[in-house]
């Protein structure tokens, strides 16, 4: 797996391109120092990554469980702290899943447990340095 990151020639604005030609803009989150308005910071991309990775797992697991999922949203909240070197890291990451459909709550809980603790590569990569928690609500 490879990603190419290209500086766009101005301030801290960059574009990442995947091998499949998927693109995402990133920048500093501080527009006062030249951050790209609407661009995501690398730390925000980590939150997007864990939310997206887990959502893919949950959709797949619920389909295998024959659960009629109609929609899924994930709100991801990270609590940043400064490390001893002065950079930022996430002390805690909390994901709140909003799912809809005629779903069995026990099966939704099982899908989330499997995703976060076993299948989601991003949560596995972040769990050593961050406390990861999650909850869900079913909206009918």
Molecular structure report:
This protein has helices at residues 42-64, 105-119, 121-126, and strands at residues 3-7, 14-18, 23-26, 71-82, 88-100, 131-139. By secondary structure, the protein is of the alpha+beta class. It folds into two domains: 3-33, no CATH class; 42-139, K homology (KH) domain (GMP Synthetase, Chain A, domain 3), CATH 3.30.300.20. Strands 1-2-3 form a three-stranded antiparallel sheet, with no helix packed on it. The protein has a three-stranded mixed sheet with strand order 4-5-6, covered by helices on one side. Helix 1 crosses helix 2 (105-119). The longest helix has 23 residues, at 42-64. The termini are far apart. The mean pLDDT is 90.
State the CATH architecture of the largest domain. Answer: 2-Layer Sandwich
Question: Radius of gyration, rounded?
Answer: 17 Å
The third-level CATH topology of the largest domain is GMP Synthetase, Chain A, domain 3
Spatial gap, N to C terminus: 38 Å
Structural class: alpha+beta
Q: Please summarize the sheet with the most strands.
A: 3 strands, antiparallel
What global shape is seen? Answer: globular
Spatial order of strands in the largest sheet: 1-2-3
Number of domains: 2
Taking pLDDT < 50 over at least 5 consecutive residues as the criterion, the unreliable ranges are none
CATH H level, superfamily name of the largest domain: K homology (KH) domain
Number of helical segments?
3
Strand residue content = 25-35%
Percent in helix: 25-40%
Question: What's the assembly state of these chains?
Answer: single chain
Task: Count the beta strands.
Answer: 6
CATH class of the largest domain: Alpha Beta
- Mean pLDDT, to the nearest integer, reads 90
The run of helices and strands is EEEHEEHHE
């Amino acid at each position: 797996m490879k990603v190419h990151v290209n500086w766009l020639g101005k301030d801290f604005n960059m574009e990442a391109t995947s091998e499949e030609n998927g693109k995402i803009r990133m920048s500093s989150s501080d527009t006062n120092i030249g951050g790209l308005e609407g661009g995501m910071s690398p730390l925000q991309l980590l939150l997007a990554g864990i939310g997206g990775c887990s959502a893919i797992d949950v959709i797949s697991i619920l389909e295998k469980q024959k659960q009629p999922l109609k929609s899924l949203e994930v709100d991801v909240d990270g609590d940043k702290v400064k490390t001893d070197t002065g950079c930022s890291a996430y002390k805690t990451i909390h994901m709140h899943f909003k799912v809809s459909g005629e779903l069995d709550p026990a099966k939704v809980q099982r899908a989330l447990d499997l995703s976060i603790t076993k299948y989601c590569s991003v949560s596995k990569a972040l769990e050593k340095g961050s406390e990861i928690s999650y909850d869900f609500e079913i909206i009918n």
